[in-house]
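Field reference: "sequence" (input) and "structure" (output). Example, Epimerase:
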Amino acid sequence: MKAFVTGANGFSASHLIKALEQRGDFVVGLVRQSSDRSRLEGCHVELVYADLCDVEALKTAMTGVDVVFHVAAYVELGLVNAAEMARVNVEGTRAVLTAAQAVGVPKMVYCSTIGIFGDTQGRVIDETFERTQKDFSSAYDRTKYDAQQLVDQAADQGFHVVSVLPSGIFGADDPHFGPVVKQFLKGRLKLWAGGDRVTGIVHVDDLATAMLLAAEKGRRGDRYIISAGDMTTREMFALLSKESGVPAPAETPEAVVRLVGNLLDPIGRLFSWQPPLSRERVHYVYDRCVRVDGSKARRELGWAPRSVEKTIRELVTGTRNAE
């Protein structure tokens, strides 16, 4: 099989490429000229250097491809360039869909997010859930929601595109929670916030497997939530502590966290700086809760992920082995 992967140098896409190559598939990957390609070290992927919104370059790269995996995204919370995020997440998806259909790509798998469902206020939902939140918690949620609408429209018009909707993606080289785990294992993480915050968890390699299964078995227009389960932040650190022997960090009082977020937010905007806490990040910690049921992917795709406990435990060994 010949596959085309957008955002090839990214966390999720690089693991997908390795899974494809392990199967013997030929992979073409899209990256920017300025991209850090260290995650692809040892891979045999044929790289194409172009902007995600360059339809002509995409059409050339996709010619003769059996399946497109659209994984590229601008993922960030807090103080972001909302216009650039919309360009990458929405217009980039539009360009990928346009190019894939123009050259007759048989199948496409789109990597979405459970964030498109909006805040469920802790209610456990599945793929049939209709969004009730009227606004958006972040530019990321809004742009991924808008991109999902484009994908759904393409499917309605007959294009074979399937959506996978991962929850929190974890792995030793995770660019978001990974640095936190590194600091924790070194004994430098003394404080944390939001112990009751619930996070859906999926190992990055299990997400890669789910994308392969979606390409093989997914029905046109279908959505598949990709989550092995969830865990509170307090439970995560307790498990990390048990596995590593490093004491769990103390929890900062909510009032202090909210105060610091309110103070740092305008400072960050003034100096174009991404503070560790901002109003949006605080909102995600205390006020927003999306809980999902990933059983459809297990039932219909035959997806069998590792448990959330094993995923968290592997962060300890994986992070230590990487150093």
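The radius of gyration is 19 Å.
The longest strand covers residues 26-31.
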